[in-house]
Amino acid sequence: MSLQTFLDDNQIHYRVTRHAPAYTAQELAAVEHVSGKRVIKPVIVRADGQLIMCALPACYRVDMDELKAQLLADEVEVVAEAHLRDRCWDCDPGAVPPIGWLYGMTTLIDESLAHGDRVMFQAGTHEDAVEMSLADYRRLARPEMAHFARMNA
């Protein structure tokens, strides 16, 4: 099922934009002329063998020590995009939408995304983005809330 079909089936009000290739969430924010705090980037980690999609603002980074403590995990590591090709077969590497359960993962959202009105994220390619309300994103992603991100210096 495509992301747009999924959004339509869930009666989500969203906007798709097409833009010059953007390979990072910060590049997406720049090309779309929005704050990096509104663009959600997914970082997929393996915590004690379980894949977890961490959703955080583009201008933040995952604090691995804090994430490990929040998850009560012995071992946490970032998963290379190359290792996700089979699981995220419908997406360009690095352009996975931050909705983990679509790919068999829990979504963990950083508390820095608890407030705000609109969010944007890559829609499976480096040229397409989806914008929707934060409330709709949270309803779709069904994330667990945690504190694991730090603003980039």
Assign the structural class, choosing from mainly alpha, mainly beta, alpha/beta, alpha+beta, or little secondary structure: alpha+beta
Mean of all residue-level pLDDT scores = 93
- What CATH architecture would you give? Alpha-Beta Complex
Helix content: 10-25%
Q: How is the biggest beta sheet arranged? A: 5 strands, mixed
C-alpha-based Rg, rounded: 14 Å
What's the CATH superfamily, by name? YbaK/aminoacyl-tRNA synthetase-associated domain
Taking the alpha carbons of the first and last residues, their distance comes to: 38 Å
Report the portion of residues in β strands. Answer: 25-35%
Lateral strand order in the biggest sheet: 5-2-3-6-9
CATH topology tier name = YbaK protein
Task: Kindly state the number of beta strands.
Answer: 10
Shape: globular
Annotate the secondary structure layout.
Blueprint: H1 3-9, E1 14-18, H2 25-32, E2 40-47, E3 50-57, E4 60-62, H3 64-71, E5 76-78, E6 106-110, E7 118-122, E8 128-133, H4 134-141, E9 144-146, E10 149-151
Parallel strand pairs: 3-6, 6-9
Antiparallel strand pairs: 1-8, 2-3, 2-5, 4-10, 7-8
